[in-house]
Amino acid sequence: MATQCVTKVELSISCKNLLDKDVGSKSDPLCVLLQSVGDDKWTEVDRTERVKNCQDPEFSKRLCIDYHFEKVQKLKLAVYDIDNKSVDLNDDDYLGGYECTLGQIVSSKKITNPLQLKKGKPAGKGTITIVAEEVKDNRAIVLEVEARNLDKKDLFGKSDPFLEFFRQDDDGKWLLVHRTEVIKNNLNPSWKKFTVSLHTFCSGDLNKPIKVACYDKDEDTSSDLIGEFTCTAANLLEAKDQGVEFECIHPEKQKKKKGYKNSGVVRIKYCKIEAQYTFLDYVMGGCQINFTVGIDFTGSNGDPRSSESLHYLSPNGVNQYLTAIWSVGQVIQDYDADKLFPAFGFGAQVPPDFKVSHEFALNFNPSSPYCQGIDGIVQAYRMALPQVRLYGPTNFSPIINHVARIAATAAQQPNAAQYFVLLIITDGEITDLDQTKQAIVNSSKLPMSLIVVGVGEADFKAMEVLDGDNGVLKSPTGEPVARDIVQFVPFKDFINAPRESLAQTVLAEVPSQLVSYFKMRNLSPVNPPAPTK
After folding, report:
1. Running DSSP on this structure, what letter comes out for residue 492?
2. To which H or E segment does residue 15 belong?
3. Residues in CB range of 340: below 8 A, 6 or more apart
4. What is the rounded distance in angstroms from the CA atom of residue 406 to the CA atom of residue 400?
5. 139-275 has which fold?
6. 416, exposed or middle or buried, with CB in 10 Å at 0-12, 13-18, 19+?
7. Across the strands, what pairs with 456?
8. Is CATH 3.40.50.410 what the domain over 280-520 is classified as, yes or no?
């Protein structure tokens, strides 16, 4: 599993034309950031300073919040007129509030809206402007390192060297920031190029001490030190493209041996600082995430009129298919400006001629398969259900290839403007496994991710193979995926869990998949952030 996309976002808040509650002077506004904890309950996350005597405040204190892509984070920004020093806002006049999701803010980058005194009703006066910015140093250090004439440490071979890089913290302790791979049986190793964020590597300070230690890997005992040296990131950067060398010194040998020179030489072949763009850089820089849904209408789901069927609509109008669409769609929709989502079915006989189709438009309009918002997909699904005949087989590749064709057109653009997420909801055994593997390998070179939610109790072993978390997925001809793009989740693991937890698991890998594609293509955001110092 990929790590969740968690980063900190700063919100800059300003207001215009606030209500004037004070007699003889203007209001003294303060803005509070609240986050929903469910059941219409809110918890305070942060608050600005109070600005005295001002109806058009621009708050200098930024509001800071952890951002999770895979969650719908409902926020409320509440503006109060503060007349006393108490932190309890119940004593103060409420000037209006605004509710939205954090996803809406980061995808828009800047939002201006009227303040409301009651939900759904404008305050009659005043607007709020929210500007989002990710808190980070977006630089990374890229290094390529080799060594020569290292000491031989093994009795029956040479050495199995690897490097460890440490930064010195303010308290003088050495903190490990990177470890290279081990090169077996080699006194002149060359390690793979690697990238570490500059914040991690040296806290963004090019003059902070860095220790580089070279070890001989020993499987049975602790690794043996070959030698070490200290430097700074600034010293390493002197390499540029010509290289810079450091003597690798073993402190004990240096003490004991007269005439000891070194235990080898470490050469920095390449060292540069590069911008490392994050998921938020791409989204806030103008990348649209296009969401497509594919729904399994094969006969193994059972007759929709029967309460045993996975397509049966319960008295409250819900089933596992709809819950999956709602859960994932609620998050994704914030990142798509036009909220028009193509939706398809597969494995059914479709009117009017009832031929089997594996990529029919859910709204039966092949020239415009778009549904308006998540509610539009739900409506199209409910309308289609009684009109199609559930059939088979369970073929994924047509719908994957359909989205891949659109993604391939977007991939010809020289910018990071479009990314595609296909959600397939299915009940079981896949019939065209080889064609699906090939389709995924082809799609891994495109701006595209595939999410598969398995409903019902079927055996989903094939889906876990497609996910590739336990090994690299290959096509039938042996071609590996260019990058991991598939996330499979069995719905049964979430039947009694909150809807948010399904979305969280399903979408956890999308941010890193999006970044990995644009990084692979060496594409910057459409509107890159200003360089950090």
Report:
1. G
2. strand 6-16
3. 370, 371, 372
4. 10
5. Immunoglobulin-like (2.60.40)
6. buried
7. none
8. yes
Give domain limits for the chain.
6-134, 139-275, 280-520
Q: In whole angstroms, what is the distance from residue 74 CA to residue 54 CA?
A: 28
Amino acid 2: pLDDT: 40
For the stretch 75-87, pLDDT in tens is 999 999 987 665 5
Contacts of 40-47 with CB under 8 Å at 24 or more apart are 42/76
Task: Give the angle subtended at the CA of 112 by the CAs of 110 and 115, to the nearest 5°.
Answer: 140
6-134 against 280-520: fold identical:
no
**80 and 522 Cβ atoms separated by less than 8 Å:** no
The alpha carbon of 221 is separated from its chain's Cα centroid by a whole number of angstroms, namely: 39
> What is the C-alpha to C-alpha distance for residues 494 and 339, in angstroms, rounded to an integer?
27
Q: Which own/partner pairs from 406-414 qualify as long-range (CB within 8 Å, at least 24 positions apart)? A: 406/290, 407/443, 407/446, 407/447, 407/448, 408/446, 410/446, 410/447, 411/445, 411/446, 411/447, 411/521, 414/523
Q: Are the CB atoms for 278 and 263 separated by under 8 Å? A: no
Stated pTM of the model: 0.73
In this predicted model, what pLDDT tens digit does every residue of 133-176 receive, in sequence order? 887 777 889 999 999 999 988 767 789 999 999 999 888 889 88
Contact 280, 106 (CB under 8 A): yes
Give the H or E element holding residue 232: strand 224-232
How far apart CA 89 and CA 81 sit, in angstroms, is: 9
6-134 classified as CATH 2.130.10.130: no
